[in-house]
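Readers of this paper often ask what the protein records in our data store actually look like. Such a record has a labelled line for the sequence and another for the backbone structure tokens. Nothing more is needed to write down the fold, since each code stands for a local backbone conformation. The record that follows is passed on verbatim for readers who wish to inspect the format.
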Amino acid sequence: MFDTQLLTLLGVGFLLGLRHAMDTDHLAAVSTVLAERPSFLASGAIGLWWGIGHTFTLLLVGFIVLIGGIHIPAEFETIAESGVGVLLILLGVKLALKLYRERWHVHSHHHEGLPHVHLHSHQLEKDHRHRHWMSESIRPLCIGMAHGLAGSAALMLMVLSTTVGVGGGLLSILAFGIGSIAGMMGIALIISVPVVYSLSASHRLFTGVQGCASVASVLVGVWMLFKLTQTAMGQR
């Protein structure tokens, strides 16, 4: 039987995981992926795999810390968060480049012996390639793992401040991870609403939503790096 303290810790961990999924950097990263896969089914899968990657990293770090008694240095958290900032910038730039390649452009060719010019966009072309669930899951899984690594130090402090032991500590981390999975799946579904709606309304509106996701990801990444730089300079 679980004691009251452990049950309370598991419940709090689950709720904290739900809240943790709503962090700005998480939303920005997942939004860039959702902007390229406008469907409710895909959004749920993206949130699920992000949460699985996030939870896997937390459990791995938690196992190492709780079993080996290893202390996570402050520099580790700074490096991990810097990596997330760079990742957000790369995701935003990648989406921007995709939009640039799919922009409207002019094609000139001859039709029935006469020169002919028309506008064309690759975004309007149907993608008939078969998508495999494994390949589509790798990117949100890796993004979730990176975010889990960046948030592991703070979570370990919370776990180590309790007296639940190794087993209870891992269970609390798992509860936190399950909460983050549920939270991110719910948030991904909510974020996908304007994405799916914009695609059904017009391609121009859909492109605008994708552009907003790209810019937001870059701005959040730059802001994270700026804050980390300011913090590092203040500690000198």
